[in-house]
Amino acid sequence: MASSNEGNLRAFVQTAEQAGGFVWVIVLVDFAAHEVKCALVSEENFATADAAHDAGNDRLKGMSNGR
User: What is the pLDDT of residue 11?
Assistant: First the structure.
C-alpha cells in the first residue's frame, strides 16, 4: 500500500478486484476528524493487481504535483 501524507490527511492507494480485472482505489483519510474525505476508483480495469497499483501510484503522484 502506498501513501502520501499532508499533516493529518493521508492518501492511500489500494487495489480491488472488479469484473475479472483489477482497479486502483485512492482514499483520502482525515485522521484528526476520523473520517474518509473522498475515494476515487479507476474507470479502467487492469489485468493484474500490480498493474492497477502502479497506475494508482502514478495517479496519486500526479495529483500531489497538481497535475
Answer: 93
Which residue numbers in the chain have pLDDT < 50?
none
Which of 23, 31, 27, 34 is closest to 13 using CA atoms? 27
Query: 58, 28, 56, 27: which is closest to 43 by C-alpha?
Result: 56
- The pLDDT of residue 65: 83
> Please, are residues 22 and 51 in contact by the beta-carbon 8 Å criterion?
yes
What does the alpha-carbon distance between residue 63 and residue 67 come to, in Å, rounded to a whole number? Answer: 5
For residues 42 and 52, give the distance between their C-alpha atoms in angstroms, rounded to a whole number: 9
Which three three-digit cell numbers place residue 9?
490527511
